[in-house]
Specification:
By secondary structure, the chain is α+β, with helices and mostly antiparallel strands. It contains 4 helices and 4 strands. Among the domains are: about 35 residues, no CATH class; about 35 residues, no CATH class. Strands 1-2 form a two-stranded antiparallel sheet. The chain has a two-stranded antiparallel sheet with strand order 3-4. It is elongated and about 60 Å long. It starts with a strand and ends in a 6-residue tail after the last strand.
């Protein structure tokens, strides 16, 4: 592989293949292939990063670091319901009738 400096400031260097073999290797570097290593010895580093991220998110919500997925989903649902009840959302206006250019929105009657 060959690293070329990026011309745009703050962008990472470009990694380009030096030959056909290197090009074939680069084509195998996909997110799917990366995540297929999770739970295997070669993916231990990625598992560790996800565990650290999960612990950081749990800490941000004030939950224990070892919270399970089901418990986290239940807590998020409860939080969503709590916030939803505190901030009611106005219903969207309904279409009154369709005209030549599509539906028209119902307007309040003049008083």
């Amino acid at each position: 592989m060959e690293r070329l400096p990026e011309v745009v400031p703050a962008f990472p260097d470009r990694i380009l293949p030096r030959d056909a073999e290197a090009a074939a290797t680069l084509k195998t570097r996909t997110l799917i292939d990366l995540y297929n290593t999770r739970g295997k010895p070669e993916g231990a580093w990625l598992d560790a990063l996800h565990a650290a991220l999960d612990a950081a998110v749990a800490a941000a919500y004030g939950w224990p670091a070892d919270i399970g997925e089901d418990e986290a989903i239940a807590a998020l649902l409860a939080l969503n319901r709590e916030r939803g009840g505190a901030e009611p959302v106005s219903p969207r206006p309904r279409a009154a009738s369709a005209g030549p250019s599509g539906p028209r929105l119902a307007t309040p009657a003049a008083t």
